[in-house]
Amino acid sequence: FQFTIMVVGESGLGKSTLINTLFNTTLYAPKEVLAPSAERPKTVAIQSISADIEENGVRLRLTVVDTPGFGDFVNNHESWKPILDNIESRFDSYLEQENRVNRQKIVDNRVHACLYFIQPTGHSLKPIDVEFMRQLHTKVNLIPVIAKADTLTDEEILKFKQRILSDIAHHQIHIFQAPIYDNDDEETIAENEEIASKIPFAVVGSDREVRTADGRSVRGRSYPWGVIEVDNEEHCDFVKLRQMLIRTNMEELREHTNDVLYENWRSEKLIN
Amino acid sequence: FQFTIMVVGESGLGKSTLINTLFNTTLYAPKEVLAPSAERPKTVAIQSISADIEENGVRLRLTVVDTPGFGDFVNNHESWKPILDNIESRFDSYLEQENRVNRQKIVDNRVHACLYFIQPTGHSLKPIDVEFMRQLHTKVNLIPVIAKADTLTDEEILKFKQRILSDIAHHQIHIFQAPIYDNDDEETIAENEEIASKIPFAVVGSDREVRTADGRSVRGRSYPWGVIEVDNEEHCDFVKLRQMLIRTNMEELREHTNDVLYENWRSEKLIN
Ligand SMILES: Nc1nc2c(ncn2[C@@H]2O[C@H](COP(=O)(O)OP(=O)(O)O)[C@@H](O)[C@H]2O)c(=O)[nH]1
Ligand SMILES: Nc1nc2c(ncn2[C@@H]2O[C@H](COP(=O)(O)OP(=O)(O)O)[C@@H](O)[C@H]2O)c(=O)[nH]1
């Protein structure tokens, strides 16, 4: 089946690296940064890259939608607009397929999740973060993550998460809530509560192996003062993000997109 | 004597922390971040804070000029302008004092150095960085630093520094060069060349003491995977920045401001 995830955040927040880390594949080759003299683009671009991957024995067509330029200009006025347009054009194309006589082969290209990368300032959400999330939260499942979380100490991460959640509440932004079903077994409920308690996930990505002080080979980043391990839950929330996105909630993300976000958009569209 | 340093960069790049670390004093109390509901300022502010400090047995009146808001808005159009105006108004006030009959007590409030904080993206300078430096490099001694350098591995720092220097060269930006005098002794020359080779400095700041694995108490940041030590030259260029700013070049910075930057501004002003 199809799963489309959009990735949004300013350049240099480790987005490409995180996607490679999440899906254990070099979906994005190491970035060719534009030469100093190159003409820089003036607007936000929308780029898609797809791959057939296998997760938990399930084969899926993963599409990652990249949004280079978002937040990168001196003026980022309405930089959310091309992104919103893209999400809605995918709704349009789904609606058009739904309205056909033959509906056997509907291709679902709608965006099922949007990973929004927050700069690890340690302070609060930035105006551009708030603006983006307010413009898009009724059209896509928003999953905010704290980028490059190895910039922050454990104490700073706790304070920052609290502050982000209160900014989100204050601005009445809806972020994706992993549903917890009462009829699930105790273990699953506990697991989902544990995942939910870590939101927004403080993530670190790495597409290379490094050696730890005690000789293990791990995915991580090697600094003179130590090695951060991406898959170590004491070091960051990468594992939790991966669990939520791929193991426990891929189905919920697709359903919520179809049953709620798309339906609301469709009703509004047909009323107008 | 007087030394005025201006600090510029977006919120959350560790500027206040670095100033406290540089001068070993809590010049800036831990930041009170605005509440989620607080009205955010809409323009760049210019704020000054002064303290009498002693460095190398020399007592000096240190003034730090802060520029909150720079780079923090969705639109940062001309966010350099209030900063340039402030620098030039200080030139104006110096010129006015120079033109007086009694010139015994000239107070030199001109900005002697501007620490410009570069976000550790690992890619290249951002448009806002280039624009700021191009607008200000003929009016103030620019000292670009890579902020929160503990975000980058040694390898990433080397590549990033090279890229920043080629961006600077491409845009014909003049940054402060620590002069190397041929008539200095060998040791001083070697030291100054060593300092110059590290520019732009990759800095880390910390105003708290932490304990290392081997029991030492150091200024640094404690992560689950290790402790970064601010004063350890294997970990970052903080010591080099401090040497250049305070030990070796405070006099050059003031002289260059007076003999070159101010004089050029004054000639241009009198011609027009
Ligand atoms: N500190 C830190 N650096 C990272 C992380 N992920 C990627 N990087 C580095 O950050 C730089 C930019 O990463 P990239 O994935 O190209 O960012 P993008 O521009 O958002 O796609 C590269 O030097 C990466 O090695 C992370 O989790 N923590
Ligand atoms: N990783 C890292 N974090 C830092 C560094 N310096 C300060 N911080 C943290 O970054 C956050 C913002 O620092 P602050 O000095 O208030 O930044 P400012 O907004 O630029 O003045 C705080 O949580 C600091 O503890 C540094 O060198 N490296």
UniProtKB/TrEMBL annotation, chains A, B:
A GO CC annotation given for this chain: septin cytoskeleton
Protein's GO biological process: cell division
The organism's place on the tree of life at top rank: Eukaryota
Keywords for this protein: Cell cycle, Cell division, GTP-binding, Nucleotide-binding
Domain Septin-type G: start-end pairs: 1-272
GO molecular function ontology, one term from the record: GTP binding
Family to which the UniProt record says this protein belongs: Belongs to the TRAFAC class TrmE-Era-EngA-EngB-Septin-like GTPase superfamily. Septin GTPase family.
Designated name of the protein: Probable cell division control protein CDC3
Organism: Serendipita indica (strain DSM 11827) (Root endophyte fungus)
Residues of the full protein shown: 46 to 317 of 421
